[in-house]
Amino acid sequence: MMSNHSSATEFCLLGFAGSQELHHILFAIFFFFYSVTLMGNSVIIVIVCVGKQLQSPMYFFLGHLSALEILVTSIIVPVMLGGLLLPGMQTISLAACVTQLFLYLAVGTTEFALLGAMAVDRYVAVCNPLRYNVIMNSRTCNVVVIVSWVFGFLSEIWPVYATFQLTFCKSNVLDHFYCDRGQLLKLSCDDTLFTEIVLFLMAIFIILGSLAPTVVSYTYIISTILKIPSASGRRKAFSTCASHFTFVMIGYGTCLFLYVKPKQTQAAEYNKVVSLLISVLTPFLNPFIFTFRNDKVKEALRDSVKRCCQLLED
User: Distance of CA 104 to CAs 16, 41, 100, 108, 181, Å?
Assistant: First the structure.
């Protein structure tokens, strides 16, 4: 705890309630999820780079999405795992807290921008296939990815700066497993109303702004697919979008619940559950979503495994 009119130089993370035995069980579960997430997304990156079948814009974007998923979970989960192993509250320095929050929000924003771009890519592929290679050329894809990364990191500078300009005099204990912005605002003895309104408007702009091209793209995609006369043709056209659409539903759904609301300081338990969905479950599901429903990815994976086996035999 801290005295009034002072600001924190470090924070204590409460993490998860429960006994040490429960913490060890949670550690095993989350460590498993984290390991599979790292391995699965790394495999996608490798096969996108080396697989001849996957040399197209869709898989180029998928490789970057997998890299972002690795970053998102790696920013949060190792700290969380450390808190589950160590008895008592886990301390984190002010600098580490600033860095963690900034990277988490910046990578998340980059991911939203990339998901919007992937939706437009699917629209061009389904609705304008004859001009697909002309519109989605390598230069366009590189520009889209660079803009997504730059926008993601630049757009979160002010929100994080404004958050840590506040004076944290109520306490230095965060009821969370990472440096959550909502919990930080709870600790401030300053008037946070203006900051919360601006953060809400920025969340609206970022999340709904990237969702808009997704909604428009899929409106045209569905309309085009329904006009295809054969059932097999409709299934084939929809299969090219199914994985991305599934990931969009999960990713946007969880983030809308967490960030797009006027009041940032909601119940800690609610925050923890939704944060687990974003930082643990979604990155874990990404390789499965884009593998099980995609024949080209499965074929590239089989070819990679065969090449590895041949190298080992030699």
Answer: 20, 18, 6, 6, 11
